[in-house]
Amino acid sequence: MFSLDNSKIKLLSIFTLTILFVLLASETSNAIPSFARKYQTSCSTCHYAFPMLNAFGTAFQNNGYRYPGGDENYRKEEPVSLGSEGYKKVWPDAIWPADIPGSSPFSTHAVGRINYEAMGNVKWGFEIPHEVEVFYAATIGENFSVFGEVEFENENNETVIAFPFALQYDNSPMLHVRIGMVRPDPTPNSMRLTRNHYNIASFKTRNDWRYRDENVGIEVWGAKNSEGDRGGFTYRLGVTNGQGITDNNSAKDIYGLLSYKIGGLGVTGGTEGSQSETSQFYIDNSLTLGGFFYKGTASKTGSADEDFTLYGGNVEFWYDRFIANAALMMANSEIVNKANRKSLVYYFQGNYVFFPWLIGLARYEWEDKDTDSDIVKPVNAIIPGITVMVRANVKFVLEFKKFLDDANEKKDTFVLQINLGI
Predict the structure, then answer these.
(1) Residues 6 or more apart from 331 whose CB is under 8 A from it?
(2) pLDDT, tens digit (0-9, with 9 covering 90-100), for 195-247
(3) φ and ψ of 352, to 5 deg
(4) Which residue of 200, 323, 329, 416 has the smallest Cβ count within 10 Å?
(5) Considering only CA atoms, which of 384, 396, 404 is closest in space to residue 420?
(6) pTM of the predicted structure, to 2 decimals
(7) How far apart are the C-alpha atoms of 76 and 25, rounded to whole Å?
């Protein structure tokens, strides 16, 4: 990410607004994201409330962004062929055939906010847009997927730009190889409804590494159903630079995640719950248990390198209209000539679907950056919120963050966030 001067900000604003206008005015876009266009289906087929995935959305992802049980039977827009099937018979004396999307693979996600902060000169503020993402996602032939994004975001009154990209080889649901932006975070956006990130994703080590920043590397991951096409396990192993697209040290970080789902729709699909475009797309009676670790080196100007290890576990329970999930993470940090530091972070949360378009939520968070110190006090907060799905691709989030510790009691925030995906 980098800062932009005023002239560049104006040019980028004009460029972004032009893209938004073209996409909004396009009759063929139908105001839905690229995969929904490909299959001519609602966002709620794959999403509990975007970006949070439901059981079918997870299975779709685990199949390399293809429909479980035969992708060709469900897509409504045929891809453009790049070579005939006969080329396979004469390979290597021909280029192996592939295909590209038959329609535009581009989509847009815009986020606007109305904020209230207890501290500061400006109590109320309009942050519209807070973020605009122009992203693209597509499958290429039978075994490749590509994902990319150009993101403009307001951060501390400066416009920053990011451009994550990943290419994925999809051998089978059990084996995917991804290169580019990888996903070590045990609490990704696909698990989140709130404006506030999970505290585990936002926790910073002493040299400012955190899960939710960009991670570039290579990972191997996959999923497999249990017997009867119910539940199953998912794994992920990877190597990453550690901090951004480039890193300030030559060391490579490693990570792993493993989860096991009991009951519910199979993690790669199945018959039960497959009709998730119905009014009960939010139901998947199941229990998922998981564990994760991350071991890395973080560099920071003016400080010696930090060697750190993160590890922990998470649980997710779906029953009828209710979802409960929780995670706990421990961290060990070592810096030469400084005392070692241990940290503890956890949260637990509950969601309830009052109506398919109205979801209530409450989360409790705890973060203790130095468990051996009486000087560094823990930070804890409660986050109640309501999500309103005005349409399948338009979402309002009303959310309050109330700090419960004395040091942060005046930092409470209130936000009304608007999300639009087209």
Answers:
(1) 203, 205, 308, 309, 310, 341, 342, 343, 344, 345
(2) 899 999 999 999 999 998 888 999 999 999 998 889 999 999 999 998 776 77
(3) -140, 130
(4) 416
(5) 396
(6) 0.84
(7) 22
